[in-house]
């Protein structure tokens, strides 16, 4: 019986090729949408989460809100960093200011980011440093030293040489390289650090580039479960300081990660809504195809019922036809989704795995829609009077 119903379904699709193909395309596009979008958001969510966690879940930062600050206000100062550093729940703290400057090394010129930080910055950001980072003495004395990123080493220095001890010219200021930031072991990116960056003591930075205010203060805390409490305490602290006239933003890795996950959740929800709408439109098309099939097979239905076919057999024949659309469309959709994800993964360099839950959801939605829009025509066919079918034919 099952084999016969499958044969009937296949013959029906062949008879109405154009209408059948259009209905199947709708299911294929729906499956591709939900599988690709959910697989991408899952991969991107993991990528962002790993990136944030690579710098540490205990990381927080304060920055000046330039959009709401009073003109001429001083912004964050080095004293603010000292006050935050002295809080009981703060482990390490560092000022952070960055500028884009020109660089010339070994006959190669270009632009890089120069960041002014202190001796605790590498611990705060969980940096893997070759040789060493800036020390307390160099920070206090405003020494002409720097730590370069791996990208700067590869771009401006000879790739195979030890950069430590080399001189580097940044906008006419010469610095001695004391270390190099090694790339992470896994492909992650928190978006908080420029890959094309050179770190120098903030004391040197403020003097060489006439920078009097701090863009950001980054610090680590003792207990990540108390972030909301810490935010309140820092808010009170900064509100009581004398350098008024500006507003500031207090953020943490945990809150930023939660916000990123919310965005990916909304994207998934939106893709499900779009997929559902597309599925429903496809379902209406399938229902019309089956109704047309019933109209064209009236004589066949009448003859089968006349020789003893039950209502259930007629019902199952057209339900199988509806399900055949679903199975055919889902199969093509999953194969194309897998191929598309492989291509995107290769181009982007991000490891994207086909989401099993997305496939299950796509298959489930397709089956439900096809059954929903197929059951009414199938019942109608099962209830047909065999005599009327044969007479009208």
UniProtKB/TrEMBL annotation:
Domain MacB-like periplasmic core: 20-234
Signal peptide, first to last residue: none
Compartments (UniProt record): Cell membrane
CC per GO annotation: plasma membrane
Any Pfam family: MacB_PCD
Membrane spanning residue stretches: 21-44, 269-295, 318-346, 352-375
GO molecular function per UniProt: transmembrane transporter activity
Domain ABC3 transporter permease C-terminal, chain residue ranges per copy: 273-386
Superkingdom to which the source organism belongs: Bacteria
Membrane topology term: Multi-pass membrane protein
Keyword field: Cell membrane, Membrane, Transmembrane, Transmembrane helix
Family, per entry: Belongs to the ABC-4 integral membrane protein family.
Name of protein: Putative ABC transport system permease protein
Biological source species: [Clostridium] fimetarium
């Amino acid at each position: 019986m099952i084999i016969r119903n499958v044969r009937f379904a296949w013959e029906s699709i062949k008879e109405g090729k154009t209408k059948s193909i259009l209905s199947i395309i709708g299911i294929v596009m729906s499956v591709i949408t939900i599988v690709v979008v959910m697989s991408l958001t899952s991969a991107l969510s993991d990528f962002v989460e790993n990136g944030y966690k690579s710098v540490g879940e205990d990381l927080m930062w304060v920055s000046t809100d330039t959009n709401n600050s009073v003109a001429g206000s001083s912004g964050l100062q080095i004293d603010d960093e000292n006050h935050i550093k002295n809080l009981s729940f703060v482990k390490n703290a560092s000022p952070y200011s960055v500028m884009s400057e020109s660089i010339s090394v070994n006959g190669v010129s270009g632009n890089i980011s120069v960041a002014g930080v202190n001796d605790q910055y590498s611990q705060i950001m969980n940096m893997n440093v070759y040789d060493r980072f800036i020390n307390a003495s160099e920070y206090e004395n405003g020494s002409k030293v720097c730590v370069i990123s791996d990208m700067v080493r590869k771009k401006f220095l000879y790739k195979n040489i030890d950069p430590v001890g080399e001189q580097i010219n940044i906008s006419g200021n010469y610095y001695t390289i004391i270390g190099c930031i090694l790339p992470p072991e896994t492909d992650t990116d928190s978006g908080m650090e420029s890959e094309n960056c050179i770190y120098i003591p903030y004391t040197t930075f403020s003097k060489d580039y006439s920078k009097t205010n701090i863009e950001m203060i980054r610090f680590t805390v003792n207990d990540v479960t108390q972030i909301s409490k810490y935010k309140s305490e820092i808010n009170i602290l900064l509100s009581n300081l004398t350098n008024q006239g500006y507003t500031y933003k207090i953020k943490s890795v945990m809150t930023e990660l939660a916000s990123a996950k919310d965005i990916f959740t909304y994207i998934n929800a939106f893709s499900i809504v779009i997929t559902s709408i597309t599925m429903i439109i496809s379902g209406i098309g399938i229902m019309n195809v089956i109704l047309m099939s019933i109209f064209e097979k009236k004589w066949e239905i009448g003859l089968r019922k006349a020789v003893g076919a039950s209502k259930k057999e007629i019902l199952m024949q057209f339900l199988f036809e509806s399900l055949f659309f679903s199975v055919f469309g889902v199969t093509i959709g999953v194969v194309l989704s897998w191929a598309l994800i492989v291509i995107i993964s290769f181009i982007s360099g991000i490891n994207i795995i086909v989401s099993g839950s997305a496939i299950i959801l796509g298959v489930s939605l397709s089956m439900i829609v096809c059954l929903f829009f197929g059951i009414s025509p199938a019942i109608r066919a099962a209830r047909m009077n065999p005599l009327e079918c044969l007479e009208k034919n």
